[in-house]
Amino acid sequence: MVGVKRKNQWDKELEQLFQELQVEEDTPVEVIAERVESELSTSLKIGFFGSPGCGKSALMNAMIGERKTDTKITPGTNVTTHIWGEDDTMLFVDLPGYGGLIEEHTVDDYWVNYDIESFDVLLCCFETKLNRDDEAFFKEAKEHGIQIIFVRTKSDNLYDPNKSRRELKREIRRHLIYDVFGRDSKLVFTSSKTKLGIGKLHDAVTERLDAKKQDIFYRNAKAYSESFLKRKSKAAHRVVFKYSFLAAGKGAEYEDVLDTAVDVDVVTEMIENVSDQFGLTEERLQKMMQEDQEEVEDFDQIAALSSEDDISEQMVLEYMAKFKGQQRVANITKVVPVVGGMTAGFGLSYYTGREFIRSCEEIAELILEAEIQEKK
Ligand SMILES: Nc1nc2c(ncn2[C@@H]2O[C@H](COP(=O)(O)OP(=O)(O)O)[C@@H](O)[C@H]2O)c(=O)[nH]1
Ligand SMILES: [Mg+2]
């Protein structure tokens, strides 16, 4: 029953996506390509403000899940931008805080030099307390309508022999945040060491984003809960849509093995992209191989496709070939209004991506369960 429900859900999503993109029977391929590109080219920019050593880098890793990153340093500043996602869509900007300002910068020009208005969310990280400059800065940011979340880092260290953790948290919340910034301020206690509060921080971030940017966050951030994982799958779906469209579009070659015109190179990129979004690293997969791999159908094949080394087109071709000629692929094709010879290739690529997401989700669920179990 679950399978049937899920299938209908997927098809509904596909239809909805076509509606959103205003794709009709006779929409030219170039126009659709353009819409698909713009659909996924939005970027999300999150700022991490705080003094050096307060735990910003560790927090980023906890939020993302120890994945490889590209970094870019803005000349003349101490600003490092960490970039994740396809088309550089998720940016974590390491803001130095006033303690890390380089000589020629002052607190006064921080706002302009660090382009504060450009952030979707600003995480104000602190370990013990905020200084007066920080307070003034965040009051101003709040007045400008910038979304701020206060993050008390290293909360595993929260300890006082005479007070409970709860009391300590309440005091911090009241005295450092509510009394200074108002009761509508958001404070999250996190520990990058124990991962305490990271899921809560994810929720706080997504609550402050519009649907498109939420999608970017769900795709790129590490799941700490089943509900986050579900949203991740849903968001991954859009990426699969994009790649399927590109794989079946112009330049796709007729593939004998698959009996359709499809660009296997693009599908390979899609597979890499999706596995990256689910954080299926070599290390995690290795661990699973020893434990409960029999719970996942075709685990070895999925693991090979998710490995961090280059995936061969041959492997992808074999994986795709399994779905060739299936009724369910034909069902997708029926939903696709695109004319021309690309419909079959789209259906097969899309179905492949969707099945791959499903397998990744299953594996990620098992990893998540194991991680939760470890903590107990
Ligand atoms: N106990 C504990 N230590 C942490 C935590 N996060 C970071 N640290 C430690 O604090 C130091 C500075 O962390 P880092 O992330 O580099 O701070 P940054 O300079 O703000 O990027 C490192 O030695 C980390 O190991 C945490 O959640 N708990
Ligand atoms: Mg750092």
UniProtKB/TrEMBL annotation:
State the SUPFAM superfamilies in the record: P-loop containing nucleoside triphosphate hydrolases
Q: Which domain of life is it from?
A: Bacteria
- Where do the G domain residues begin and end? 45-154
Family annotation (InterPro entries)? GTP-bd, IRG, P-loop_NTPase
Query: What are the recorded GO MF terms, alphabetically?
Result: GTP binding
List the Gene3D superfamilies hit by this protein, alphabetically. P-loop containing nucleotide triphosphate hydrolases
Pfam families linked: MMR_HSR1
| PANTHER family attached to this UniProt entry | INTERFERON-INDUCIBLE GTPASE, INTERFERON-INDUCIBLE GTPASE 5
**In its UniProt entry, what is this protein called?**
G domain-containing protein
Q: What is the lineage of its organism?
A: Bacteria, Bacillati, Bacillota, Bacilli, Bacillales
